[in-house]
Write a structure and sequence with these properties.
The protein contains 27 helices and 19 strands. Strands 12-11-10-13-14-15-16-17 form an eight-stranded mixed β-sheet. The two termini are 28 Å apart. The chain is α/β, with parallel strands linked by helices. α1 links the parallel β2 and β3. The longest helix has 22 residues. It binds (2S,3S)-3-hydroxy-2-methylbutanoyl-COA. The site of (2S,3S)-3-hydroxy-2-methylbutanoyl-COA has 24 residues, from β5 and α3.
């Protein structure tokens, strides 16, 4: 059996190296290896100190999430941490890569800590619907106080070891051979006769109890309206850290951890974690080799082109923005400078970084300027025939092996590929706005797109920190969104109000309800996005009616809501209610009531049913891909796991029966896809289809 922890002794220092790729997750084998290695070191008289270090790319990035939901195997992580802390010889943790969750809790349990200058650390358990369950909520505040500790635990964001507040955790930050530095550090301890320094005995973070309690109180207030369960439990544990003796605090943390772990929210968030990683497993990666990217070509002068150019510049690429007119080129250049200026203002980059980015940027009013680009993204929206002509031109201009990407909406990728002599280099890509924030993008390969081309686009997206999702022939997101919106329209048509629907979906955890989202998008944008309308015999046209009444969404001050004053107060508008009442009267509709629960259920059922159709049509490869797109592109609550996971939690057999009931009102849209029948008959759920 491969040893998960290597034991070596170097000049009175025992070095325990954790070797469990890819991220040294603290699996049972690793935990046992650490305890065995520690016992061996403590039992060896020649050993005076211990160094704990990660092999490969990182110090442990947490407990092994795959073990959750299975019976716990001893030694469990809290015990491993206690054993390290109570060791009779000094233990030094040497950190590189990302010491996260249980990994950072091991660091906190060590007596001394040194880190590589590029290392990051954090307690991201809240992103999995749990809390640091191996002493993190008790040890971190002892060293860093409530504010820093809660920042880490409530945001879940990794912190660079060079960050201002990080000093409290690390005795040294080094640049060079970490292992060598760690052994030297340990030998220094030995020569200075320094023994164990237990975090449980530290109280630096409690020095200002008033400030501590104030911070805790503020945080309770901040999370009070949140629907996620774990954040409040985290604050309770950090509060307990200052109030209870250490071991009682640990016990309190232990039971709170178990409570969180057993919630459906945590199950959904863990599902989302693996769904995001599974999405990137494209068949093309088996053989595909990503091509090197140095220069990115961007076609277009609109918002998408400018945003693409800016995020590529921020990632260090050279960017050539090409349009077909001088005026458009000037507009593109000014848009890009404005966006870079905004990024400096929002401290997403320094002025120097912006200046360096501009130095890597050129514009041109002729596509010929793209001849040296390694990848060219056409970010324009135009009719397929016009787009085909552009790809014919690109085929003549682009260098050998350049990847040609259609980043416009509703791409006809096969048509474009046929317009070139290298169809293997052509692919479609659907990026979601806002580009800097949305963490997902859909890759739509054509029938002849090569593995290398797909692998290149995947590497491009990973560099932009986006989860790539594979879609066939068309995009996943717009279809699910259209189904969600149509379900909402049917509810409003039948008697609900847009305001009740929005309230219900915010209650479900959506950032915005469908109608407020429409208002912010603007009716023009939403109408053009409706290219992928889902099947239905009729589509209530409330947006058309509002437009006819001179409304175009938030930017026009009037949409489904009224937007008055600065900052705009958002108000419900009786005129909209009247407009909808008139629509029903004209269509002889006798309105009926809907509970928020019924609204949520119909919207979810519509999304899951459309998702089932996408799976059967082969547009989506697995249900969890649909979940990843909806979470990261349309604000579907991650703690609900995505529409397919939420449908599983709601019960597929019941959903099938309900869909059949809804289908009596509108068969074409609501009739359950036959996948429901197949799964129900075989006692399976959507999650059983997330195999590949
Ligand atoms: N457990 C199991 N597998 C993990 C894992 C983990 N903690 N972290 C990553 N993997 C797998 C992942 O599924 C993928 O597998 C491969 O490693 C590479 O990951 C008691 C209970 C470390 C920043 O939340 O944030 O500790 O797809 O593609 O982009 O308090 O992974 O190749 O088969 O994401 O370079 C807390 C989770 C756990 C950190 C690297 N820790 N991981 O990102 O690679 S809870 C976390 C990450 C805990 C204690 C509690 C990232 C990363 P595969 P990747 P990456």
């Amino acid at each position: 059996m491969v040893q998960a922890v290597l034991f070596e002794v170097e000049d009175n220092v025992a070095v325990l190296t954790i070797k469990s790729p890819p991220v040294n997750a603290l699996s049972h084998a690793v935990r046992s290896g650490i305890v065995d290695g520690l016992d061996r070191a403590l039992g060896d008289d020649d050993v005076k100190a211990v160094v704990l270090i990660g092999g490969g790319r990182t110090f442990p990035a947490g407990a092994d999430i795959r073990e959750f939901g299975h019976p716990v195997q001893d030694p469990w992580l809290p015990e491993v941490c206690n054993r390290l802390e109570m060791a009779s010889k000094p233990v030094v943790a040497a950190v590189h890569g990302t010491a996260l969750g249980g990994g950072f809790e091991v660091v906190l349990a060590a007596h001394y800590r040194i880190a590589d200058k590029d290392a990051r650390f954090g307690l991201p358990e809240v992103t999995l619907g749990i809390l640091p369950g191996a002493g993190g909520t008790q040890r971190a505040p002892r060293l860093a106080g409530a504010k820093f500790a809660l920042d880490m635990m409530l945001t879940g964001r990794p912190v660079p070891v060079t960050a201002p507040g990080a000093k409290v955790f690390f005795d040294a930050v080094v640049d060079g051979d970490l292992r060598k530095e760690a052994v030297a550090f340990a030998q220094n301890l030995i020569s200075e006769g320094k023994g164990p320094r237990r975090t449980r005995d530290q109280r630096i973070g409690f020095e200002d109890p008033h400030a501590y309690q104030n911070e805790v109180t503020n945080r309770y207030r901040m999370v009070a309206r949140q629907q996620e369960y774990a954040p409040e439990q985290i604050i309770r544990c950090v509060e307990a850290a200052a109030l209870l003796p250490f071991d009682q605090g640990l016990a309190f943390e232990r039971s709170s951890f178990q409570d969180c772990l057993e919630t459906s929210q945590s199950a959904a968030l863990r599902h989302a974690f693996f769904a995001e990683r599974r999405a990137g497993k494209f068949p093309e990666l088996k053989t595909g080799q990503a091509r090197e990217l140095n220069t990115i070509g961007v076609i277009g002068a609109g918002g998408l082109a400018a945003s693409v150019a800016v995020i590529c510049l921020q990632e260090g690429w050279h960017v050539v923005a090409a349009t077909t007119t001088v005026r458009a080129a000037e507009h593109a250049a000014s848009e890009i400078s404005k966006l870079l200026g905004g990024a400096v203002m929002r401290k997403h980059m320094t002025q120097t970084e912006a200046d360096e980015a501009l130095a890597r940027f050129t514009t041109a009013s002729d596509l010929v300027a793209l001849s040296e680009a390694d990848m060219i993204l056409d970010c324009t929206i135009r009719p397929p025939s016009a787009k085909r002509d552009v790809f014919t031109q690109l085929d003549a201009i682009a260098k050998e092996g350049a990847v040609l990407v259609d980043a416009g909406a509703h791409s006809k990728v096969n048509l474009l590929a046929q317009a070139t002599g290298a169809p293997g280099d052509v692919v479609a890509l659907h990026l979601y706005a806002p580009l800097r924030i949305s963490k997902v993008a859909e890759i739509v390969p054509g029938g002849n797109t090569s593995e290398d081309t797909v692998a290149t686009v995947i590497s491009f997206l990973r560099k932009l920190d986006k989860f790539p999702v594979r879609a066939k022939n068309e995009q996943i997101g717009p279809r699910i969104l259209a189904a969600y919106r149509l379900a909402a329209d049917y509810i409003v048509e039948a008697g609900g109000t847009p305001y009740l629907v929005d309230q219900a979906m915010r209650g479900f955890g959506m950032n915005l309800g469908p109608y407020q989202a429409l208002d912010y998008e603007g009716f023009e944008a939403s109408l053009s996005a409706q290219g992928s309308a889902c099947r239905a015999s009729h589509q209530p046209d409330f947006v058309g009616r509002l437009q006819a009444a001179g409304r175009n969404g938030a930017r026009s001050g009037k949409g489904f809501y009224l937007y008055e004053g600065k900052p705009a107060s958002v108000q419900q508008d009786p005129e909209v209610i009247e407009l909808i009442r008139a629509y029903r009267e004209e269509n002889g509709i006798d309105p009926r009531g809907f509970s928020e629960e019924a609204i949520r259920y119909r919207c979810l059922a519509a999304m899951a049913n459309e998702g089932a159709r996408l799976l059967r049509e082969g547009v989506a490869r697995r249900p969890s891909d649909i979940d990843t797109v909806m979470i990261h592109a349309f604000g579907f609550p991650r703690w609900q796991g995505g529409p397919m996971k939420a449908a599983d939690n709601a019960g597929l057999l019941h959903m099938k029966v309900e869909l059949e009931r809804f289908a009596r009102e509108e068969p074409k849209f609501w009739t359950p896809d036959r996948i429901f029948d197949h799964l129900a008959k075989n006692g399976k759920v959507f999650d059983d289809l997330n195999t590949q």
